[in-house]
Write a structure and sequence with these properties.
The complex is a heterodimer of chains A (about 120) and B (about 110).
Chain A (H helix, E strand, L loop, with lengths): L3 E4 L2 E4 L5 E7 L5 E8 L3 E8 L6 E2 L6 E5 L5 E5 L8 E8 L10 E2 L3 E5 L1
Parallel strand pairs in A: 2-11
Antiparallel strand pairs in A: 1-3, 3-8, 4-5, 4-9, 5-6, 7-8, 9-10, 9-11
Chain B lengths: L3 E2 L4 E5 L4 E7 L6 E7 L6 E7 L4 E4 L2 E6 L4 E6 L8 E8 L8 E2 L3 E6 L1
Parallel strand pairs in B: 2-11
Antiparallel strand pairs in B: 1-3, 3-8, 4-5, 4-9, 6-7, 7-8, 9-10, 9-11
The chains are: A mainly beta (about 120), B mainly beta (about 110).
Chain lengths: ~120, ~110
């Protein structure tokens, strides 16, 4: 029962480097989300995918791109990393029809440091 | 502008006593509220929720109260246990039944044995 799996768990980048955070869920959920958590800010939505083939911006999308590769996988890409993107990133999923599609299942997080 | 605010960064209570975590919001369009719990090095996990048409929801030791006129909700944990020590996030939705949530800053609860 893996749930939501994120890789990598930790990553250190230099300013300007690019990288992709991977996320996969095995619960047959339709919707997937990327949030970031910063001290004193709570979690903020970066991008989401309501269903396979669709993606939309959240509250803080600048500097990021996403790909909904298939129903299971939703990746987050930083094209040119900046120190302001140092954060803990959480992938989450849910599905309409589940009792409360607001009830997200989160991965364990990916801690990214940009130097 | 923080639409969901948890003004107490931390709370410490004795085991067996009541823990009360508070949350205020500004957007009157919010129609669903949730509490998530987070342990270190793990993702948040869903704890309890309440629809805006209700003023109370209970689940075992956990009760959430909603005061719409004051735009305030609270989470009561009775009795508190050491395993409840975690960060608690309040979250709200204005987009119906989706995972697009606005989170508060979190409150770190410590339950002392």
């Amino acid at each position: 029962n893996a749930g939501v799996t994120q890789t990598p768990k930790f990553q250190v980048l230099k300013t300007g480097q690019s990288m992709t955070l991977q996320c996969a869920q095995d619960m047959n959920h339709n919707s997937m989300y990327w949030y970031r958590q910063d001290p004193g800010m709570g979690l903020r939505l970066i991008y989401y995918s309501a269903s396979e083939g669709t993606t939309d911006k959240g509250e803080v999308p600048n500097g990021y791109n996403v790909s909904r590769l298939n129903k299971r996988e939703f990746s987050l890409r930083l094209e040119s990393a900046a120190p302001s993107q140092t954060s803990v990133y959480f992938c989450a999923s849910t599905s309409p029809g589940v009792a409360g599609a607001n009830v997200l299942t989160f991965g364990a997080g990916s801690r990214l440091t940009v130097l | 502008d923080q639409q969901v605010k948890q003004n107490s960064p931390s709370l410490s209570v004795q085991e067996g006593r009541i823990s009360i975590l508070n949350c205020d919001y500004t957007n009157s369009m919010f129609d669903y509220f949730l509490w998530y719990k987070k342990y270190p090095a793990e993702g948040p996990t869903f704890l309890i929720s309440i629809s805006s048409i209700k003023d109370k929801n209970e689940d075992g030791r956990f009760t959430v109260f909603l005061n719409k006129s004051a735009k305030h909700l609270s989470l009561h944990i009775v009795p508190s246990q050491p395993g409840d020590s975690a960060v608690y996030f309040c979250a709200a939705s204005a987009t119906g039944n989706t995972g697009k949530l606005i989170f508060g800053q979190g409150t770190t609860l410590q339950v002392k044995p």
